[in-house]
Design brief:
The protein is an alpha/beta fold and 339 residues long. The chain has one domain: Aldolase class I (TIM Barrel, Alpha-Beta Barrel). It contains 14 helices and eight strands. The longest helix has 23 residues.
Length: 339
């Protein structure tokens, strides 16, 4: 199955009330882990790369790895998504490198501060016009998330993030003015491992905001960023073998599931997979210090990440739907957007 735009996957998820994990990658083993989990659970999947990941992996390597994934797993609907594009040029370059979906994050300005509404609308609309003419899906963002990871985020503290939550009325106007396919909303989550200093409650994790935005925008696909759960067992795995992850709390899976029931269709997960890989490598080095072949430590790292990905695919409800999604090319989406 060729790489698909994101919109058809999210449409199918909306029709069947499930969410789709959007999983960040930087190298071959991460892509392999995701695809193995997708095969195991028969799940459609969104693989995404940030600007930093594209620089690290180099675009041509990344594009060809994704093409290999689509050829090796022909029954898995697969999206190649630009995560947190910070400019029109970044998104344009992703489109030119065969990404089938892009995010224009205009919620942050060029000084990494929360942007004005007008700036966000203008820059996002530019990307939408270019992308839709090519059949490529677009995700936008309204509000600003806390934390910084891989070069994106406004660097807001947990308290400051509460001041930049998505305004439902503004979200409604933003979608009407930009025509984005998906909308990332700020509900108190943040990027990176250190999201919350204690288990989040309704006071800091505002799932009720999602419910209100979905009420206003029932036909818009909502996105949760910063949605790793940072499981205690993965923190413990890293720390048991020489790591120093300070006690932290992520987004509980049950809260994500509540969001999915209220219109969330794409759920970004990155930190959990990083912890899984790091924990597995640290364990191998500690238990077998004589090992030096990268295959010896990347195989268990890949397997540990596969376990996390498969668990999220099942929890988000996408498992079992791979064969039920019809292939859709960029050309078919050009016709869709032209209507």
């Amino acid at each position: 199955m060729p790489l698909m735009p994101m919109r058809p996957l999210l449409d199918h998820a909306a029709e069947n009330d499930y969410g789709i994990a959007a999983l960040n990658v930087n190298n071959m083993e991460q892509i392999q882990a995701i695809m193995a989990a997708a095969e195991e659970t028969e799940s459609p999947v969104i693989v995404q790369a940030s600007k930093g990941a594209r620089s690290y992996a180099e675009d041509l390597y990344l594009r060809n790895l994704m093409q290999a994934a689509s050829e090796l797993h022909p029954n898995i609907p697969l999206v190649m998504h630009q995560d947190h594009g910070d400019s029109v040029a970044t998104c344009q370059s992703a489109m030119d490198m065969a990404f089938t979906s892009v995010m224009m994050d205009g919620s942050i300005d060029d000084k990494s501060q929360p942007a004005s509404y007008e700036y966000n609308v203008n820059i996002t609309k530019q990307v939408v016009d270019i992308a839709h003419s090519r059949g490529i899906s677009v995700e936008g963002e309204i509000g600003a998330l806390g934390g910084v990871e891989d070069g994106h985020g406004a660097g807001l503290s947990e308290e400051e993030a509460q001041e930049h939550l998505t305004d439902p009325e503004e979200a409604e106007r933003f979608v009407a003015e930009t025509n984005v396919d998906a909308l990332a909303v700020a509900i108190g989550t943040s990027h990176g491992a250190y999201k919350f200093t204690k288990k989040p409650t309704g006071e800091v994790l505002r799932i009720s905001l999602i419910e209100e935005i979905h009420r206003r925008l029932p036909n818009t696909h909502l996105v949760m960023h910063g949605s790793s759960s940072v499981p205690q067992e993965l923190q413990d795995l890293v720390n048991e073998f020489g790591g120093n992850i300070k006690q932290t709390y992520g987004v509980p899976v049950e809260e994500i599931q509540r969001g999915i029931k209220s219109g969330v269709r794409k759920v970004n997960v990155d930190t959990d997979n990083r912890l899984a890989i790091t924990g597995a490598i640290r364990r191998l080095f500690a238990q077998s210090p004589e090992k030096f072949d990268p295959r010896d430590y990347m195989k268990p790292a890949r397997a540990e990440m596969q376990k996390v990905c498969a668990a999220r695919m099942v929890a988000f409800g996408q498992a079992g739907y791979a064969s039920k999604i019809q292939p859709c090319t960029l050309k078919c989406m050009v016709d869709f957007y032209a209507k």
